[in-house]
Specification:
By secondary structure, the protein is an all-alpha fold. The protein has one domain (3-90). The chain is 32% helix and 0% strand. The chain has helices at residues 3-8, 61-65, 70-73, 77-90. 15% of the residues are buried.
Length: 91
């Protein structure tokens, strides 16, 4: 792995859930046919902050295309939530 990959990519922290709470999602989600507003917990996020739809075809494309990144996710769930909230507010 080169230095750029070490800086820009990261593994998803299981149980974080920030990407399933902070951003708005405009596409339909099973159980949320109109998508979800920013700051609202996705109904498909279980009690351990894991996606019930992970790896399933009904998972929204926007969710499956999101890849964890050190600049977005940082080193903590709190950092990820703050960063994703700020990005949502800016867009």
């Amino acid at each position: 792995m080169n230095r750029i990959n070490l800086i820009t990519s990261t593994e998803c922290r299981l149980g974080c859930g920030a990407c399933c709470i902070a951003p708005s999602i405009s596409s339909p989600i099973p159980g949320m046919p109109s998508g979800k507003p920013a700051g609202v917990r996705c109904v498909q996020l279980n009690e351990k902050n894991l996606c019930r739809l992970f790896g399933k075809p009904e998972r929204p494309k926007v969710c499956s295309q999101f890849k964890p990144d050190a600049t977005i996710c940082g080193t903590s769930n709190v950092y990820a939530m703050a960063t994703l909230t700020e990005l949502e507010e800016l867009t």
